[in-house]
Design goal:
Layout (H helix, E strand, L loop, with lengths): L2 H33 L15 E4 L11 E7 L4 H16 L4 E7 L6 H11 L6 E4 L5 H7 L7 E5 L5 E5 L4 H13 L1
Parallel strand pairs: 2-3, 3-4
Antiparallel strand pairs: 1-4, 2-5, 5-6
GO molecular function: oxidoreductase activity
Protein name: Thioredoxin domain-containing protein
Subcellular location: Cell envelope
């Protein structure tokens, strides 16, 4: 096989991988919203067993207060890129919203997670917890979360108001609406 044939084969494989990534990241989440919509309006059960590694330990969701839950992981590139955006929103609503980032990584990885959060410093300016027991998977399922990063907005009444990707403009709108309703 010549060099040109090898290059063409490589280009074809790269194009296939690109299309698969495009479908998984752009099209599938869009379609899944229609096939498996979030259960908006349902009460969100408390997530117990969280190990807080940054910020004060608090019940999730926080009773009588708007709560934003972010599901993330240290190994997730898109999660890391959204952290500064989430911090801006958390600071904007710091007096009226309980904001908690929850990673579903193993408690065995606690040292790695703590090091990551410390390295992020003020860029990750909200409470962070590890859900080593996997209890947040229920709210992830109920909110139609198929991937991360994923945020869930819970009203002061304890009911799910919005769920989706944290970079969607509708996320901030949902937080504002939930704050205005409390």
């Amino acid at each position: 096989m010549g060099v040109l044939s090898t290059i063409l084969l490589l280009a074809k494989n790269v194009a296939i991988v690109f299309l698969v990534v495009l479908i998984v990241n752009l099209i599938l989440p869009f379609v899944s919203t229609f096939l498996y919509p979030p259960k908006l309006g349902v009460s969100v059960a408390p997530i117990s067993g969280l190990k807080f590694i940054k910020g004060a330990s608090c019940p999730v969701p926080t009773p009588k207060k708007v709560t934003v839950i972010e599901i993330w992981a240290t190994w997730c590139g898109p999660c890391v890129r959204t952290i500064p955006h989430l911090s801006q929103i958390a600071n904007r609503f710091k007096d009226s919203v309980s904001f908690v980032g929850i990673t579903q990584e193993s408690l065995n990885d606690e040292a790695k997670i703590v090091a990551f959060v410390e390295k992020m410093g003020d860029k990750m300016d909200y409470c962070v917890a590890i859900d080593g027991l996997g209890e947040s998977r229920v709210v992830m399922k109920d909110s139609a979360g198929l991937g991360i990063p994923h945020v869930i907005v819970i009203g002061a009444d304890g009911k799910m108001k919005w769920a989706g990707h944290p970079m969607k403009a509708a996320f901030v709108d949902a937080v504002v609406k939930a704050v205005n309703e409390q």
